[in-house]
Amino acid sequence: MSDEPSVIARREGAAGTILMNRPRALNALDLPMIEQLSAALRGFRDDPEVKLVVLEGAGGRAFCAGGDVRRMRELALAGDAAAVEAFFAGEYAMNLAIAEFPKPWISLIDGVCMGGGIGVSVHGRYRVVTEHALLAMPETAIALFPDVGTSYVLPRLPGSVGMWLALTGARLKGAEAVEAGLATHYVPRADLPALREALLEGEAEAVGRFAQIVHPGAVAAVRDAVDRCFGEPSLEAIEDALGREGTEWANAQRATLMRMSPTSMAVTMELLRRGASMSLAECLRMELALTRKVVFHPDFAEGVRAVLVDKDNAPRWAERARVEEMFS
Ligand code: QUE
Predict the structure, then answer these.
(1) 318 vs 101, 177, 259, CA distance in Å?
(2) How many angstroms is it from 49 CA to the middle of ligand 1?
């Protein structure tokens, strides 16, 4: 139904609850949703009855698949820089407001969570994942870059895990996301209704009572290789290091990198390098400045076309652009 609200925010007991409700678009964030989420955040911040916030995605398949990049592509092709700016400025301001939110911000991630979905969850204290969660920063596939404050978050993950996730867009299942540090707690889907009920009492600590221990798994298994390869200082050196590994995993990572926008990968490396020594607010400002260049580079329209519009997954990338130009 087009008249269904795309964000449903209400007070339930001692909790403010927010439901991202655009399930046919996998709850991807458009500007009206960002504005409604921001308004809900302000309301809950100033309501003394609200002790914590619970954020969920509707439809059972997705938490939030990202941002409205199809629309950004149309706006970029139309040359509407002001509308592009309005979207990203609004989204990044919301990301910062979540980081600065003075009460527990608890995301229940029970499905796809990419890009903008990471941005509405990762800056909060509690990121609960289930066995159905799938987390990724896949922007290099559409010639964007890891944004929504992840230029702050990714360089602070263990070793070179952040660079690996940023360049390859690797998809992490729920428990793997806890291993990597993107998520904080693993709770089976079957226990989410009971956890939710407990949270409505206003005690964020309930999350800890429902959480199950995550043992070292798929991320631990590749961690040494990730650090050896993705800790290298240039794309060429990363590709060479992956070649030296000689494993099926390393070959698969190299094949993945070959499909990504060369410009986007170079921008991403520099972004994470800079983000490592900046505050979240500074990172978000850097990301916003980058959108003014990257969204209008031909690779972005081509990447969104290939992945989300025509879905042929056969982007024809431009030659790698000069990174200094993108950051200037
Ligand atoms: C990179 C992205 C996004 C993406 C795929 C990428 C993104 C996004 C979506 C998406 C997926 C399914 C939908 C939808 C959007 O996919 O930001 O509306 O139904 O929103 O490789 O950054």
Answers:
(1) 41, 33, 12
(2) 36
- Rounded distance, CA 248 to CA 146, Å? 26
Name which residue sits closest to atom 3 of ligand 1, judged by CA: 66
- Name the closest-CA residue to atom 20, ligand 1: 66
152 neighbors 283 (Cβ within 8 angstroms): yes
Three-state DSSP at 212 gives strand
What predicted TM-score, i.e. pTM, was given to this entire model? Answer: 0.97
Q: Which two tokens stand for residue 289?
A: 């400045």
The string of pLDDT tens digits covering residues 183-209 is: 999 999 999 999 999 999 999 999 999
Domains of the chain: 7-327 (3.90.226.10)
Alpha helices in 100-217 (DSSP H): 116-119, 150-153, 161-168, 174-180, 192-199, 206-210
CA 284 and chain centroid, separation: 13
Report helix angle 81-99 to 280-294, nearest 10. 160
Which residue, among 238, 245, 291, has the nearest Cα to 260 in the 3D structure? 238
